[in-house]
Task: structure prediction
Amino acid sequence: MRAFEFLTEADAPAPKKVGREFNHLEDLVFTETNGAQRAIKVLKDLANPSKKIAIKWDGNPTVYWGREEDGTFRMVGKNNWGREEGKSSSPEELKQFIMSRGKGEEWRAKFAGDMAAMWSVFEAATPNDFRGYVYGDILFHPGKPYQGADGRISFTPNQTTYAVKGTSEVGRKLSKAKIAVAAHQQYGYFGDKSGEPFENPEAFSTNPELVVFGQTYVSYRPEVSADNLGKIEALAKNQNTINKFLTPVAGMGYLQNEIYSFVNAQSKAKQLENINSESFFNFLQKTPAKAVKIKTHSDANPGVLDTLFDLVREIMAAKNEVIRELDAAEGDITATTDGKPGGEGYVSGDDSVKLVPRDRWTPFRAD
Result:
């Protein structure tokens, strides 16, 4: 269970050379030059009340909505964004575009209908003077509504089920709504790639049929007393050696990306205990030429890969301990995945990292 409070502040994340806008805490070891030290600092600072730890909502599908400079309202799905042919100006156009994509999948007709049915609610809630677009993930909608039982409102947008106390402030709002959306970013124009954190859900609260969440922050502060912090600190002394090993050399500028892909692949395969050098070289066999070059480079720098992967596993273990403590906190909202406490994890907005329980979480999108 979790303790959340609903705020709207967010910090702009720093750009990363490898990975995504928000990287996994353990990935900092090979995506940043001071990654191990920063991971340790993040872990130790999580108990600080000034830190912002937000829920990582597991919403689905993705939606972009807003108004053009002339006030025209538009709403599109993930595959429409940035495509002129998908720049829908009516629910009928949105439905037609979605139906024109793919290969005639059975789910597509319902998905297109569900998206079109949400149009009028989003348009009514979007202020006439608003300009730009908001990006978010749907939590429930008429095609997949919330359920009410035992004094709670529950919904399962993707893999995680959320249950909200009906008597809470959030629960009372949700009980009147047809749609709830977790908003993440705001963009200046259609197809914009450089968004800013969405900070003003109150502006979209005029229509009770739509509830827009901004960042949803955890009010409980974990103690963070991971038993292996000392081991992590000892291993982190090798960060300079790891940096030297990862520095791109002629004909092998892909090493960091290969490590990133490997760790993700092990996560999806539920092989996190096998994040090690042996499994990495097995993974590289799909591209023999790369495997030979990386193996030669590793042999010239003995033990560095082993240390790197040791750090990844140890930081992951400490992070999982923090997640377990956050999941166990009491609050108005609870989350379960496959019947077990917890959801997709959390985001440390101050630090631009995500705390995702990879041992139980497999990325999946239905849209």
In short: The longest helix spans residues 304-327. The first strand starts at residue 4 and ends at 6.
